[in-house]
Amino acid sequence: MFNNMENIISKKKNQYPVTHDLRNYLKNYKREVGMPVSYQDLEAFNSSIPVYDKNGEDTLWESVFYPQSSMEEIHTGLKKIYAIIKSDGSMKLSEHLSVDRIDYCTFGNSKPFRIRIINNYNDNYDYYYVKLADASRIYGLELEHILAPNRITYLVYQNTIIEEHIAGIPGDMFLELYMNHKGMNKTRLAKEFIKFNERCFVKLLGDMRAYNFVIDITQDFDDVQYRVRAIDFDQQCYEGKMSLYRSQFFKENLPFVEMCTELINYPTAVQYQQEERALMNKRLRNDATRVDTLLKCMESDVISKPEKVDTLRNGLAGYYKEPRFLQCQKMGEIVRLSLSIILKKDYIKI
Alpha-carbon distance 118 to 191, whole Å? Predict the structure, then answer.
């Protein structure tokens, strides 16, 4: 069922603007809200220092600082954004909060700012992210929100995306620190990884290497439950190689794949895939109008290169033995057809 291979993701993905149709969709579903601080405002820092983890290792993030003349305005604006995310904009509930740190990361496509908000009474803290608006990323966030078992909080303002922090243990850190921890229920984790792998392939969300997803651990009354959650949506239906949409093929995920191969037999794996498709089908039916509107935006949008569209449609046409893929001219058309085929109850393909 699972194999390991080297995959090469595009080193620099194009940023795609938010179109008029997509902007209307965001307004209609209350995703676009006026913000006091934009991504460009945060780019105006004048100095930075590296951020190290608890073990003294470089995290690839930099803590940035602003001129005294603009720092207070930026911090006030960032607190207002946090209030918009958490409490519908009520600043009365945020008077005891402050901006503890603003971090910047040049690694990856989105070059995000990470805002750390701290409670002055008890030093408890929370994060959110400020990124450049990219249409393909927005489509990925929306599809995750609608079709995955996780709600996604994000807002768009002009060319800025505000994203709530998705809590969990990064997959690469989990492999290093928790994989062989006493009390680990690897069978339950293997089940969740198979279902996660299926979700990503159905939605055509790519590049789900270990550091692009987190594992959320919940203590149940008699055991532990796991949930694998995507945290990076830059590669939503962008790449051409079909294998890049299946997390089982990334070498970084090999320990997870080996765990699944060891603990889950073929009939059980098929069962988990069918369960996940059935759940996605229910979510799809519940939000059919919203999904259709979103897919219409995608079908009229350009969110990948023509050669990548060609490669993906040819790969999926062969994989599913479905010639209708060859008629697709846009990534949005491929996603719609992928959903319509894979979510059939009687469909089985590993």
Answer: 36
CA 300 – CA 135 distance, rounded (Å):
12
Distance separating alpha carbons of residues 69 and 342, to the nearest angstrom: 55
Per-domain boundaries in the chain = 20-134+152-164, 169-342
Cα separation, 298 vs 96, whole angstroms: 42
DSSP code at position 324: G
Identify whether the C-beta of residue 187 lies closer than 8 Å to the C-beta of residue 263. Answer: yes
Predicted confidence (pLDDT) at residue 332 exceeds the cutoff of 60: yes
Segment 227-250, tens digit of pLDDT = 999 999 999 999 999 999 999 999
Q: Which of 243, 252, 90 is nearest to 170 (CA)?
A: 252
Residue type, 307: E
Structure tokens at 272: 């988990």
Distance between terminal CA atoms of the chain? Answer: 7
Concatenated DSSP letters of 157-190: ETTEEEEE---SEEHHHHHHHTTT-TT--HHHHH
169-170 and 213-219: which strand pairing? antiparallel
Q: Which two tokens stand for residue 42?
A: 């945060």
Show the beta-strand stretches assigned E in 27-124.
Answer: 47-52, 58-65, 97-105, 113-119
Q: Is 128 helix (H, G, I), strand (E, B) or coil?
A: strand
This prediction has a pTM of 0.92
